[in-house]
């Protein structure tokens, strides 16, 4: 019996010695956060008035530009007057050498509101997170036929958000 008690006591001391000694614990919080900023992207397009031999009547065409803004982001889209020398919003200029053809860009199909870079002649909206297509309505008004050539211009599309 003495022998069993000694073995039991020795086994108990061995188990007690194997346990880690924990004096105390400390905890803290880790703050996790992020900010999602409103953003927009824009996709340009092309507006082709075609091949013409006469400008005796208005020539109307339309195209679209794409805008994609994050959900809830308010935006406004403006078009500059273009790169043609002497261009204005109402009389943008496609050029071929020193020769020009006047044209205008509008926000509406009736072609009554010239599209500019200033309110109220811009298109405004609120982003949904999905791309939307905005119509651009172009018109070459009746005018004297300039010399033959390929006429072009570049208009900058700006999205303010």
Automatic annotation (TrEMBL):
InterPro entries: Spore_coat_component (IPR053167), Spore_coat_U/FanG (IPR007893). The lineage of its organism: Bacteria, Pseudomonadati, Pseudomonadota, Alphaproteobacteria, Hyphomicrobiales. Residues 1-23 form the signal peptide. Coiled coil: none annotated. SMART domains: SCPU. The keyword Disulfide bond does not apply. It comes from the Bacteria. This is Spore coat protein U. Residues 26-158 form the Spore coat protein U/FanG domain. Keywords: Capsid protein, Signal, Virion.
């Amino acid at each position: 019996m003495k022998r069993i008690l000694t073995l039991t006591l020795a086994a108990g001391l061995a188990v007690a010695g194997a346990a880690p000694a924990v004096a105390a614990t400390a905890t803290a919080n880790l703050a996790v956060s992020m900010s999602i900023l409103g953003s927009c992207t824009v996709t340009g397009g092309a507006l082709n008035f075609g091949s013409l031999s006469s400008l005796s009547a208005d020539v109307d065409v339309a195209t679209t530009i794409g805008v994609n803004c994050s959900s809830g982001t308010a935006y406004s889209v403006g078009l500059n007057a273009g790169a043609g020398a002497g261009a204005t919003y109402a009389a943008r200029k496609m050029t071929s050498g020193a020769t020009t053809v006047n044209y205008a860009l509008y926000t509406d199909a009736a072609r009554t509101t010239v599209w500019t870079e200033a309110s109220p002649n811009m298109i405004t909206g609120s982003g949904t997170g999905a791309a939307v297509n905005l119509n651009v309505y172009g018109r070459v008004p009746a005018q004297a036929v300039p010399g033959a050539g390929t006429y072009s211009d570049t208009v900058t599309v700006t999205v303010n958000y």
